[in-house]
């Protein structure tokens, strides 16, 4: 039996299984595992899965070749039916949650009958979801029947954040503003100005500016082209083509003179050649300081 639940937007598939007990024919057992295999495959791999029930097999106390599927904290001695459970789990990348938490025998035994204590009830989860399992244990006092004990799994569900969709951010290739492209750009801007002269003569300065900017951008896109891709895939320095060696040398020189100005203000230098420095820095020294801090 299988049901699907939705918890905080996450789909959870729960399967309850009851395997044929020892003494039944191999054909019947194989039919059961084939049907369970088909049912598990119907559950999308990106959804949580909990498979529990009476699987009528002993997986044993130790992992013994089934590391990652068996946690090493089982009970009893493994038999052929228990080996089928572990092989099924390995085939579907599942793990037996019972065996991943160290417990006393009383919290591992799931079945008691006629003085015999065994472990035949199991809870299986996807291996990647083991990290969300906090505990798995048997409650001796909570009997599901006269023989089976209550087996509980404590797990947590994390609310998934919706994935942000990367939007396209086309950018004008201003680096192409040279040669024939520059002439084509000039002609396109002139044509746009003549075509929309009435809009530019409007009294509203804001509207006039928006119209002028639109004309220039449209002409640039047609003449120079735009980038493709998303903001995530485009390189950070995609618009740094103008930062040539000549520009870098001028910036370095200006930064050096600005540092000299700061030293003079702090009283560390008495010889102040004010005119050249002020011509480089300008009247708004604080603004230039912010600009240079960003450049550095």
From TrEMBL:
Organism: Artemisia annua (Sweet wormwood)
Highest taxon above the source species: Eukaryota
Annotated protein name in UniProt: Craniofacial development protein 2
């Amino acid at each position: 039996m299988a049901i699907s639940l939705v918890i905080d937007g996450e789909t959870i598939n729960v399967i309850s299984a009851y395997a044929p007990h020892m003494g039944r024919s191999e054909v019947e057992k194989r039919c059961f595992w084939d049907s369970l295999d088909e049912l598990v495959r119907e559950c999308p791999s990106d959804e949580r899965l909990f498979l529990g029930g009476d699987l009528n097999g002993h997986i044993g106390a130790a992992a013994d070749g089934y590391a990652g599927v068996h946690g090493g904290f089982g009970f009893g001695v493994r038999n052929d039916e228990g080996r089928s459970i572990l092989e099924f789990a390995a085939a579907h990348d599942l793990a037996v949650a019972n065996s991943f938490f160290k417990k006393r025998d009383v919290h591992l035994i799931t079945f008691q009958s006629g003085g015999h204590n065994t472990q035949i009830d199991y809870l299986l989860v996807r291996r990647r979801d083991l990290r969300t399992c906090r505990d798995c244990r048997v409650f001796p006092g909570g009997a599901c029947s006269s023989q089976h004990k209550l087996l509980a799994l404590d797990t947590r569900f994390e609310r998934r954040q919706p994935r942000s969709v990367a939007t396209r951010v086309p950018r004008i290739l201003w680096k192409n503003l040279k040669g024939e492209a520059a002439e084509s750009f000039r002609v396109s801007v002139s044509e746009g100005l003549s075509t929309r002269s009435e809009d530019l003569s409007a009294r509203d300065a804001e509207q006039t500016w928006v119209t002028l900017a639109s004309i220039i951008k449209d002409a640039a896109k047609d003449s120079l082209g735009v980038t493709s891709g998303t903001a995530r895939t485009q390189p950070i320095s995609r618009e740094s083509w103008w930062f040539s060696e000549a520009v870098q040398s001028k910036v370095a020189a200006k930064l050096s003179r600005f540092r000299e100005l700061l030293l003079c203000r702090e009283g560390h230098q008495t010889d102040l050649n004010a005119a050249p420095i002020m011509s480089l820095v300008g009247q708004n020294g604080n603004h230039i300081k912010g600009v240079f801090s960003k450049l550095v």
